[in-house]
Structure formats: C-alpha cells, structure tokens
Hints:
Chain A is of the alpha/beta class. Chain A has helices at 44-52, 73-79, 95-105, 112-121, 137-149, 167-182, 194-200, 218-225, 272-281, 296-306; strands at residues 5-13, 19-28, 33-37, 59-64, 67-68, 80-83, 155-159, 186-191, 203-208, 211-217, 227-234, 250-253, 258-264, 286-293. Chain B is globular, with a radius of gyration of 19 Å.
Amino acid sequence: MEPVVSIKNLNKTYRGGYQALKNINLDIYPGEIIALLGPNGAGKTTLISTICGIAQPTSGSVTVGGKDIIKDYRDTRSLIGLVPQELTTDSFETPWVTVNFSRGLFGKAPDHAYIEKVLRDVSLWEKRNNKIMTLSGGMKRRLLIAKALSHEPRVLFLDEPTAGVDVELRREMWQLVHRLRENGVTIILTTHYIEEAEEMADRIGVIANGEIILVEDKAALMQKLGKKQLVLDLKQPLTAIPESLASQALELRRDGYQLVYTFDTQADRTGITSLLDALRRENIEFSDLSTTQSSLEQIFVQLLEEA
Amino acid sequence: MNIHAIKAIYKFEMARTGRTLLQSVVAPVISTSLYFVVFGSAIGSRITEVEGISYGAFLVPGLIMLSLLTQSVSNAAFGIYFPKFTGTIYELLSAPVSMIEALIGYVGAAATKSIMLGLIILATATFFVDVRIAHPMLMLVFLILTGVTFSLFGFIIGIWADNFEKLQLIPLLIVTPLVFLGGSFYSVSMLPPVWQTITLMNPVTYLVSGFRWSFYEIADVSLWVSLGMIGVFLLACLLVVGWIFRTGYHLRS
Lengths: 307, 253
C-alpha cells in the first residue's frame, strides 16, 4: 500500500540553532491511526507543523498523497486538517462563521449542509450562533476539530487533542476519532497520555530529542516489550529470597508477603512451572496468584531510559 | 488561484467592521466633524481663502487623506497582527493559500474599509462646506491608490510587530505627524522658504497635493509628480512584502 504521508530524512533546525527534528523517516498509511508519543519538547509539534506548512523544513522531504509539501503545497494542504494544541480561536466570532471561514480558506465552495453535519458531529450545532468566547474549553476543542474537518480532509492531525479535557469528553473525542477513521480519514495524533495511544492507535511512534526512537504496531509493541509479572500472595512472609531461587527474576514486596516474578511472554519457556516446583520444594505456600502485563506507559518510560 | 480563500478572508475582515461600527466608522466621522468645527469655523473665520478656495472647503481633501492614511495603516496592521497575537494564524499558514492571495484578502479588506471611510467623510463634509470635485475619476484613483498603498504599508507593520506597542508605534510616531505636516491643513506656499523645502521631503505632501488637485485644481506640486510618488510608495511596499513572503519573515518559523 502507498503511504498517504511519507517523511524522508526530515531535519528542522530553528533560527537560533536548536535542532528540533533529526533525520526523521516515517511512512503513514491510509486509514490508520498513528499516535506519536513523546515528552514535552521532543519535537512532536514541530513535526506536525512542518508537514502542515507552518514551519519550514531545513532539509529532507515530505509527501502527502504522493505530492511534495513545498512544491505542491496547494494539493497537500487541501488533504490535511490540523487541530492545534493551543485553544486558538476567534473569540468574537461564532462557530458557524468560523467553520465556514475555514472551509473557504481551504479552497472549498460554501456548503452549509456539510458544515451543519460537521457541527452536529461535534455536538456544537446548538451553539452555532453563540460567541466563541462563551464556549467551554471542551467545546472550543471540538470547535477546532470542526474547523479542521470543514474542508473534508483525508489526513487529520490532532496535536494533543485531549489535553485538559475531562474523562467523559475524552471518551467522546475518542469515539469521534474512531468514527472519522471508519470514514477513511487517516489520523495522526500526538499525546502525553499513554492511555489515549493505547485506546486509539493502530501504530505507535515514540519521539525523543527530535528523533523517532521506534515505530511499531501497537499490539506488537506491547507484546515485544510488554513484560508480564506473576504475583504470588504468600501465607507466611519471607525475610529474603531463598538461595535456591536467587537466580530467578524475583522480588519481594509488601513486607515479604508478596513474591513477584517477572517473565518474558515471548520466551520459549516462561519459567513459571519450574518456579512453582521450586516453591514447593522450599515449602513456600501461597494463598493467591495473579498475572499483570506492563502498560504502554511502563514501556514508554523504559524506551526513554534506553534512548 | 484560491478564489474561495480570498473571498473568505475578505468577508471575514469586512465582518469585523460591521461588529466594530462605532470604532471603525462613527469615531472618524465625529473627529472629522470636530476638525471642521475647530479649523473650519473657529480658525477658518480668520483665514478666509486659500488660493481662491474657502478655508473650510480647502480642508476637505486633507482631512480625507488624514483619515485614509491612518485608517489604512491601522486596519491592515491590526488585520494581520491580530491572528498572530491570538494564534489563529496557524490556519492561514496551513491552508492552501498563496501569500499573494492572503495579501489580496487582507489588504483588499483594509483598503475597502478606509476608502469607504474616506467617502463617508466626504459626504459628512458636504454638510459643513460647499465641496466641488473637478475630477471625480481622478479623485477616486487617488483614493484607491493611496488606500491600497498604505494598507500594504500597514500589512508590513502588522507582520513586523510582535507586540501591541510596536503596532501603534509607526502609525502614531510617523504616519500621523507626516500627515499633519504634509499640507493637510495649509498650502505649502503659506510656509517660510526653509519649511517649504522641508515639507517637500515629506512624502505625504505629494499625496495631499495631488488629491486636492482633483478637487480644486490647485496643487503644491505637479499632479504627475504626485502620481509618480504614489507609484514609488506602492512599489517600495510591494518589494518589502515580496521579501517577507520569500523569507517567511515573522510568519513561518
């Protein structure tokens, strides 16, 4: 499949000399949701701004829909919708005026029926004639999404779409994103919230210090880097791990009442059977056992530590 | 050409005039009326005629120019500075809009507003004095050329400014003094020789002089010099705007 966005050897150095992007290579495919994770200042917003035309690349190339973002900027920008991180709105305008303005700006003839549909989709139709300054933060965020959708883009960039949004609204936003994807829109989102990436993305890219550390299918990433832990609640506390078990990846928690064994789900042998045998030999009894899988958050922290 | 975008920007900018009707239209009309009362009636009663024209009527082209210049500059500067200030400029920068199209939208709207204002002031003036326009078409040409040129100048200021102080600085410190000292309220020939020479270094003198000629066929400098000077300003502004667009100065990081 041809990528809808293709980034090749992209570098961006700001005028002050700060290199925000270092040799970025990334292909994004039609209809997928890709989440770009990274700490503050990692280069996520710079990457998006460069693709959308707000920042100028220092070197390298980006194509959107097979067209170059510099040479064929009209074609590429027509395909893209951008929802910025900051809630930047025209406070004195109304949602109706500003969304129609966005459509015109992107070169589309007025289509009031379509704008009505977009405003209904983001639950702002009732507020269409209210001044934007009277809308809540969540409504403004949805308004920015409506503006970005006003010209029927094929690729949607969401820069931290749920920053400062309450839990309920965040769920609504995720549903909206899923609906957009069902309509064939490719979605690139940046986020701090691992939960968000875990919930929404098909693929995850991790950015740190202007570099893409990894891009992986979410499930594969979880499987590859996800460690599982077997937690045993002991009947009698241990003061130390018995010597015969010292070679195992074990640790004691809760004043010796809990024994935690970390294992790799991808390994040929998990080592659980031999561990349980060894415990029996040492007469260590347990009242309960459970397994947990490391979250994307833990994977993320681990990746950043390695980077 | 992204015609829809030009229309969208133009409409959006013009809508602001509608919202700020008091500030955009009523305020300049009131201040112009005050000029007529103060200069035309109080002082004008002591200066009966300038080059055969009643002082009140002589003032009209200068007063229109005063508003046209200051309003063109401030409208256009504010129009492009405000999205920069609020951050909504991201949308313009990420849209399939060439800088020429953005320029037509913003400068077109700013020039339209100030030209409309000029015509409103002209209409207001007819309530106070007897105004005759010897060359209406030429008057319109001056009005449009000056409106467009100074809107371009305002656009440059709006891009250059990175705070509200800078936005006000040039209109207040340069444009207003130049207009006041550019023969808006007097004929250059009324000044002592030294001041006449200095006044002729003021570019606004040429605009006021040419504009006044279109009304009363009296001028401080030749009509062609006036038209030539507007052409020079227009070209200078276009060159600066061209440079801004090539380099992305203060727009794209």
